[in-house]
């Protein structure tokens, strides 16, 4: 099944075009990184993927997610886990009284918190504990959000989506705000997650591209400049084009890093 099947998609804010002629197919089981500089349209593309935004165009287009044109947001979240920095910040501000366990459990109702009128089965409680264990945060089960590190909260938010066992995850610059040690630890968790679901990583950080990523799409000049298998697309020339700088890309032990930039 195709997770994403987009063809000839245009998006404008008022009269200003933001994305043009977007064509993208992502198969279930594949892991993708979508690369682009700040302002390249990554946030708009995430909104298209999450069904928070629809094309506004006179052109004929195709926009299918898991083979369907229309989804309720609640049903879509059961199939597509969407982890954004906006959601992280919202929990920091409005859910800082919640424990790690409650953040994960709240995924069943897509709520910010757990409330008396919400009924949870023994199976659901057991599943929440299993998710905490899988994400290696069982030891902070009773820790409140305001006491957590950035990485701990981010794992809780992933757990909130993982409770539904979605077929794919969209991760928006997942290591932002993490120090070097926490970045490495968090990427190991994402690699572990990739054994359960497809990963769509949206970023401009090359170091976030882990070895299981099989395909790359590059956003530039309001469209997808290049896309395909990682070994064919991820190179110095293509990166230099989309970031408008001379970039030398190196690879070591299946991890990529920028050797120099001018």
TrEMBL record:
The keyword Zinc does not apply. GO terms for molecular function: ATP binding; ATP hydrolysis activity. The keyword Transport applies. Keywords: ATP-binding, Nucleotide-binding, Transport. SMART domains: AAA. This is ATP-binding cassette domain-containing protein. Pfam families: ABC_tran. Belongs to the ABC transporter superfamily. PROSITE patterns: ABC_TRANSPORTER_2 (PS50893). Residues 4-246 form the ABC transporter domain.
